[in-house]
Amino acid sequence: MATTSDIRNGLCINHNEDIFYVVKFQHVKPGKGNAFVRTKLKSMTTGKIIDFTFQAGHKIDTVRIERRVYQYLYNDELGYHFMNNETFDQIAILKEMISSPELLKEGDNLEILFHAEKEIPLTVEMPQYVILEVTYTEPGAKGNTATNVTKPATVETGAEIKVPLFINQGDVIKINTETFEYMERVK
Predict the structure, then answer these.
(1) Which residue among 24, 66, 70, 98 has its CA within the 20 to 30 Å range from the CA of 151?
(2) Model pTM above 0.85
(3) Domain boundary among 34, 62, 90
(4) Any idea what the Cα angle at residue 21 is, between residues 55 and 88, rounded to 5°?
(5) CB 93 within 8 A of CB 72
């Protein structure tokens, strides 16, 4: 058992019968009254972010999490299939446990977070950016580049994102996995 003085960013705790990841915290000692800790907690099972305040000295139940590198293989009705790069064991993970499954490309290496004691997968961590090829997009209209005009484009995984008019079919682009935004063209 730990206390609120052990809270730090990235700590995983059991709270309200769920496992939460500390996104942000702040120790507060007001001039009048008891100290407390404000936290932003992200649920490892649902992905929801909640605000919660702990009283100073409150006992918290920490959870040991292990990160393991897995390679994405394919998806079917059972879920998304990954293979451990060291043991070659395969696991199927539900779509809800992946933040942006539309941007997964076969052969990508990703980190999967496991509950260390129970050996169950909690979530798949996508990289901040992915690099994908544009498989289809309409040609841009000439002279329409004065403003930030975008057009839809389909990438090799089948996801559709908004790209600037100068992007053509066959271009390789960098995409933010959290916001599905175009970042830049890759040479």
Answers:
(1) 98
(2) no
(3) 62
(4) 155
(5) no
Give the position of tokens 């539900």: 94
Alpha-carbon span 73 to 95, nearest angstrom: 14
The answer on 110 and 85 residing in a single domain is: yes
One domain for residues 7 and 54: yes
The domain of 169 spans 129-186
> Going by C-beta distance under 8 Å and a sequence separation of 6 or more, which residues neighbour residue 44?
12, 18, 19, 20, 21, 113, 122, 123
Residues 161, 134: Cα–Cα separation, whole Å? 10
CATH classification of the domain holding 118? 2.40.50.140
3-state secondary structure of 163: strand
Are residues 58 and 8 located together in one domain of the fold? Answer: yes
Residue length, the chain?
Answer: 187
Whether pLDDT at 119 is above 90: no
Return the residue matching tokens 């998806």.
75
Q: Give the tens place of pLDDT for each residue, 7-40.
A: 998 889 999 888 898 989 999 998 888 999 999 9
Residues 140 and 102 in one domain: no
Q: How many domains does the chain have?
A: 3
